[in-house]
Amino acid sequence: MQDSEVAPRSAGAFIAVTLAFLINMMGTTLPTSIYAFYQQRYGFTTPIITVIYASYAIGVLGALLLAGNWSDQVGRRRMLIAGLVVSAASGITFLLSNGLYALMLGRLLSGISAGIFTGTASVAVMELVPLKWQPHAPFAATASNMLGLGLGPLLSGVLVQALPLPMRIPYVAHLLLVAAALIGVWGIPQIAPRGGRIRFQVQRLSLPHEVRGAFIPAAIAGFAGFVVVGFFAAVVPQLVRVVFGYHNGLLIGAIVFLLFACSALGQRVQANLADRWRQPAGCIGLIAGLVGVALCVPERSLGALLVGTVLAGIGQGISFRAGLGDIVAASPVQRRAEVTSLFFVVLYVAISLPVIGLGVAVQMAGIRWATLMFSASTIVLVLFALLFLVFGRGGRADPAKMA
Questions:
Q1: Helix 367-391 vs helix 236-243: angle between axes, to the nearest 10 degrees?
Q2: How far is 80 from 124, CA to CA, in rounded Å?
Q3: Is-contact 249 399, C-beta < 8 A?
């Protein structure tokens, strides 16, 4: 297939990349509904489960730093195929796993595939979208990411509830989806690399002075939002089992899916808010959601958890998309990729290190107290971001309308 410097805008190619993005991200959260079976089989403690979960973030960060700009040099299609191949390797590793180290390797490979897709697929979606759909391209890119993350636990929840071999069947199903995605991506046009010598090197991450006014509150709010994402993916399944006594894998997967679906909804509705109120509104939604999560423990109320999930998801989606838009608008054109990569590094740190600490807290103080401490500390973090947004807005550029 011939390379092309300008991407032919094709509905078929756009849909293929969007679905591949969704399928790839599904694999990264697929184990969420399966962790309980690993605990039963291998006797893992909660901190061990959170370490397995957090291995994913190491892979994402490594891929972002090493391969974040490779698609500019070798082409989008080649990198998307590479990401799907690594996702398949992750699924095979999980399928054949027989202990801690294999599970950690599976999560690491899953993170590498997500790191490749996070930047490459987002750009490819923008480049391949037909002109008549162009206004919806940013939402398609971010929603594919979040809905894929949400569909992973939902798929595994359905399969572990309905079929035998809960530590095997979900990965077989996802491998079949990855194969379909590979077929779709194989047929898209190759968006050519720029001419000249190909150079592979670690990306330099730094923050220009003129971006700091936009970056700091967006990074704080984004950090808090992705801490919530990590909490739901790694800890909420145990919370549902211990506090509410529900062991249904489908219910657990549906609750995690609800968070990501509401995040996609928040990303959609934020465009209807005035620019200056987008990030504050996201912070308020996060705070309200975290209050609901905290109240579900003493009240033993699944309803409070569900309401908190909806509000936190919408708030996370609003703050994530609005913050990213503010950062892009404030960044010098020649350094936008660099600054955006730094933002994603902050976000993926948020779903790893705090979650490991939370796992230790669960082991030491129990799931109830750990949930209350998590909610309180994250509320304080979001309040700090909100105060910065309200009183420290000097130097911020106006957000781009495309955000």
A1: 130
A2: 9
A3: no
Work out the pLDDT band at 2, boundaries 50, 70, 90.
very low
Helix boundaries (H) for 331-366:
336-350, 353-365
Return the percentage of the chain with pLDDT > 70, whole number. 89
Give the DSSP per-residue string, 108-141: HHHHHHHHHHHHHHHHHHHHHS-GGGGGGHHHHH
Query: Closest Cα to residue 146, out of 250, 24, 64, 252?
Result: 24
Complete domains list, the chain, with CATH: 7-191 (1.20.1250.20), 207-403 (1.20.1250.20)
How many C-beta atoms surround the C-beta of residue 198 within 10 A?
10
**Cβ neighbourhood burial of 315 (10 Å; 0-12, 13-18, 19+):** buried
**Pair 323, 217: CB distance under 8 Å:** yes
Angle at alpha carbon of residue 95, lines to 94 and 98, rounded to 5°: 70
Give 50's pLDDT tier (boundaries 50, 70, 90): confident
The answer to whether 334 and 210 are in contact (CB under 8 A) is no
Instruction: Give the C-alpha separation, 310 to 307, whole Å.
Output: 5
Q: Which helix (H) or strand (E) holds 191?
A: strand 190-191
Query: pLDDT digit string (tens) for 290-338?
Result: 999 999 999 899 999 999 999 999 999 998 888 887 887 787 766 666 6
Greatest CA separation for the chain = 63
141 close to 122: Cβ distance less than 8 angstroms: yes
The helix (run of H) or strand (run of E) holding residue 4 is strand 3-4
Residue with tokens 């992973």: 152
